[in-house]
Amino acid sequence: MTPSPETAASAAEGQTPQPGMEAGPKKKLRVAAVGDLHVGETSHRAYRDLFDRVHEDADVLCLCGDLVNFGKTVEVENLLEDLRACRIPMVGVLGNHEHECGQPQEVIRMLSEAGVKMLTGEAYEIDGVGFAGGKGFVGGFGRYMLSSFGEASIKTFVNEAVEDANLIENSIRTLRTERSVVLLHYAPVVDTVIGEPPEIHAFLGSSRLAEVVDRYENVKLVLHGHAHRGAPEGRTARGVPVYNVALPVLRTMGDTPYRVFEV
After folding, report:
1. pTM above threshold 0.90
2. Three-state DSSP state, 90
3. Phi, psi at residue 47, to the nearest 5°?
4. CATH H-level superfamily of 30-262
5. What is the tens place of the pLDDT at every residue in 162-206?
């Protein structure tokens, strides 16, 4: 597979790195990304080919959440049967589906032990490119974003969105790389949820995530999943490219079950 013609670095050419940042190498890093595999209890070898071949096209694989259906141990075990075929570094975040059984930390443990660098407030550097992020949360976009007002339950809901955004910002802040990629599950911009019913847009992501991204000039690319019927790409207010790599979206674009970017 040939990398996508758009390159994440081109979106922010000419920008001055933040003070104290170390200049990264000139060589581009090929980043493959996919989310929303939704491996189930009866899924066996469903994605073996994906994990076995991705090294031919990319240097790093990003997994954008909802990798399993309900967060059950048996589902994760089925995923790991395929995932162990991957020969390149993997970075990932959880989605909402991994929380359904109430054991997200166990899912994180299993994936981490299999070699996936899970982003839950941490950040990693691979060949001069930083990787940060987290699941994110919902709340809506722009002027329609839910505010912390009224009932205590609403305030609790909004507070979780704020705390998730803060966690993601903390992970970005730790990076000193000239180029960084942010992984999310929920969408940071409304552009990439267009195609979903407007009534559920508020449950597909939040502008708070984009606000965090736009505070850091070293962020060159944002990847997310979740919106199965959304659009493949958009941009933050600062112009950072955002890509929806949910597998159902990728399937509308061709047969390759991941998308590749150069950073």
Report:
1. no
2. strand
3. -125, 20
4. Metallo-dependent phosphatases (3.60.21.10)
5. 999 999 999 999 999 999 999 999 999 999 999 999 999 999 999
